[in-house]
Amino acid sequence: MSRPLCLITGASTGIGAACAILAAQRGYDLILTYNSDAAGAQATADACISHGATAQTVQADVADPAAIDRVFAIVDAKGPLAALINNAGIVGPAIRATDLTHARLREMFDINVIGAMLVAAAAVQRMEPRGTGTIVNITSAAARLGSANQYVDYAATKAAMDIFTKGLSDEVAATGLRVMGIAPGLIETPIHGKGGDADRAQRLAHMVPMQRTGSAEEVANAVLWLMSDEASYITGSTLDVTGGR
């Protein structure tokens, strides 16, 4: 019996990598995209293969529509597509909203919103004719917290994805597709370092009711649960994985 196919964007590290490894353990084959970290993506793929999956890495900047087309050409060759974990995203160095530049906003929205929406749309085009499929968009608790004096632009992109998740889910629910979101809180991943503040999660852990940070694996468990038949009557919802924050 063939294994269902899952596409994960941004799978070289952090939440994307954790989702890939758990998906492999749960019986999926994988297509894993990355932008710049080829070694990290291959390490993720190798871990997936060790759990009996096939796993192919694809370099793709989701801000580039041609790159998205290349990814889905590979999906079509491997297909059919059963699941999408829409995870690729960026964060910039912490600044105030008054210091935001057009270039930073353009990059942030091209990747975190426009690219993610185009990836989801391409997945729906392939899932809808079959009447089955799940999409999980990785958003952020920042969407409702605002991230003042840090990443207001990032928070705004994730709020956009929360609304997109709801709108898309309503469009496709009657065709058998489910679209959900996961909103992580303070999770120990390399994204904090990429934003210039590697110790951010630990420094802010006291603000979390559970008094600790979360792990990428804890986020992955929630993602794979939403993708499973155990969550078959859930769509349009975004689940917080935030330790109560």
Strand ordering within the main sheet: 3-2-1-4-5-6-9
Largest sheet: 7 strands, parallel
Look at the structure and give the mean pLDDT. 95
Shape assignment? globular
Q: What is the N-to-C succession of helices and strands? A: EHEHEHEHEHHEEHHEHE
Question: Could you name the CATH topology?
Answer: Rossmann fold
Q: Give the second-level CATH assignment, the architecture.
A: 3-Layer(aba) Sandwich
Low-confidence stretches: none
**End-to-end span in angstroms?**
42 Å
Number of separate domains = 1
Helicity level:
40-55%
Q: Output the structural class.
A: alpha/beta
Q: Indicate the radius of gyration in whole angstroms.
A: 17 Å
Strand content: 15-25%
The total count of helices amounts to 9
CATH superfamily: NAD(P)-binding Rossmann-like Domain
Assembly classification: single chain
What is the element layout, followed by pairings?
Blueprint: E1 5-8, H1 14-25, E2 29-34, H2 38-50, E3 55-59, H3 65-78, E4 81-86, H4 102-127, E5 133-138, H5 142-145, H6 152-172, E6 177-184, E7 187-188, H7 191-194, H8 200-204, E8 214-215, H9 216-227, E9 238-241
Parallel strand pairs: 1-2, 1-4, 2-3, 4-5, 5-6, 6-9, 7-8
Helix pairs in contact: 1-2, 1-9, 3-4, 4-6
